[in-house]
Fold this sequence. Notes:
By secondary structure, the chain is α+β, with helices and mostly antiparallel strands. 29% of the residues lie in helices and 33% in strands. Strands 2-6-5-4-7 form a five-stranded antiparallel sheet, with helices on one face. A four-stranded antiparallel sheet has the order 3-1-8-9, with helices on one face. The termini are far apart. The model is unreliable at 180-186 (pLDDT under 50).
Amino acid sequence: xxxxxxxxxxxxxxxxxxxxxxxxxxxxxxxxxxxxxxxxxxxxxxxxxxxxxxxxxxxxxxxxxxxxxxxxxxxxxxxxxxxxxxxxxxxxxxxxxxxxxxxxxxxxxxxxxxxxxxxxxxxxxxxxxxxxxxxxxxxxxxxxxxxxxxxxxxxxxxxxxxxxxxxxxxxxxxxxxxxxxxxxxxxxx
Length: 189
């Protein structure tokens, strides 16, 4: 039974820059650079037939490419921090792509995602890190500069049942069109 999710891959140069933020926080399990991604829709453990349906349905997504901007470092978990993340700006194209995937998954009977979409790249998972240590880590890296990349495709990832952080395998890739392609498609319609 595959465990699937959709996401955006992080380009190598940006992933390398994010990797420079590793270290200096007790209780952090740093994600391997090759597993950095921005999750769009967690699908979960599903049977092979449903996996096939998901892959086929994602083929219907027609969206233009867009820019994703990573804006700041942060943490998830409040008083019990559980992750260090690079937060992405929830731009309209990003939010619309995620919302379309949510609708498609619900159409084939996959339960709705219970969490609000908060676009981010997980850099580390935390176990037993104090809020003070996390605050100090984030304060020391306050000079994190905003970076952006072009999302030219989204992918269907699989992962094995583990404690998170990969390895992730690209099962299928779905291109996002350039503005020229999108205009041509509308002109033909």
